[in-house]
Amino acid sequence: MAEIRLLLVDDHAVVRSGLRMLLENESDLLLVGEAGNGTQALALADELQPDVVIMDITLPDLSGIEVTRRLKQVHPQMAVVALTIHEDQQYFFEMLRVGASAYVPKRAAPDDLIAAIRAAHRGDVYIYPSLAKLLVKDFLVREDDEVQTASLGDLTPREREVLALLAEGKTNDEIAAELVISPHTVARHRENLMGKLGLHNRIELVKYAIRRGLIKP
Predict the structure, then answer these.
(1) Which of 3, 111, 135, 188 is most open to solvent, judged by the fewest CB atoms within 10 Å of its CB?
(2) ∠126-109-84 over CA atoms, to 5°?
(3) What is the rounded CA–CA span in Å between residue 69 and residue 11?
(4) Is the pLDDT of residue 169 over 80?
């Protein structure tokens, strides 16, 4: 099994120490670096090229939200797992908006964090159960300007199939196998449908698919 390279970002040395011990017990996880602030995190991400960054939100210089935004601009393939004491709606949606793939409170069980890391590395989205209700509520109630103007009628039948499977959390390879097409073709369909619908990431894609009845929350 290929190792998942991790960068840990938290300003508390005691927290980093505890997480280090937890991560070292997993054979598929490799902690390649630690950062105590946002500036250091950005520098280490450039240098070490981790697969997944475990990101605290409250940092002494830049916020974890700002660090995530900058990371995703420069390294869009780098997954970010938010690990934080904050469980309110504001931080939750801001981290998802700037590109985090997972959101886990620090009170969560160790298995939840490990599951979130592996999900993020696969290209999936992991939301801690107590926070998922905020996301589902937002999907069903809050109107979004971009989604308002988007129409399923603009999509081809194949793009609808790809949209539904992406929203279910399936990877390009899994979709390719299910539809008997190449991963390259899946990627092209994904680009086309996101362009047509004005969507930018998997969170917006899931939101759109739920509202249009393609999948159930």
Answers:
(1) 111
(2) 65
(3) 18
(4) no
Domains observed in the chain? 4-137 (3.40.50.2300), 143-211 (1.10.10.10)
Taken in order 128, 214, 200, 191, the sign of the CA dihedral is positive
User: pLDDT by residue (tens digit) across 20-35?
Assistant: 999 999 999 999 999 9
Q: What pTM was estimated for this model as a whole?
A: 0.64
DSSP notation for the chain: -PPEEEEEE-S-HHHHHHHHHHHHT-TTEEEEEEESSHHHHHHHHHHH--SEEEE-S--SSS-HHHHHHHHHHH-TT-EEEEEES--SHHHHHHHHHHT-SEEEETTS-HHHHHHHHHHHHHT--EE-HHHHHHHHHHHHH---HHHHH--GGGS-HHHHHHHHHHHTT--HHHHHHHHTS-HHHHHHHHHHHHHHHT--SHHHHHHHHHHTTSS--
Q: Which two tokens stand for residue 124?
A: 């999936």
Give 188's contacts (C-beta < 8 A, 6+ positions apart). Answer: none
Summarize pLDDT for 106-164 with one digit per residue, the tens.
999 999 999 999 999 998 888 887 777 666 666 555 544 444 445 666 788 898 888 88
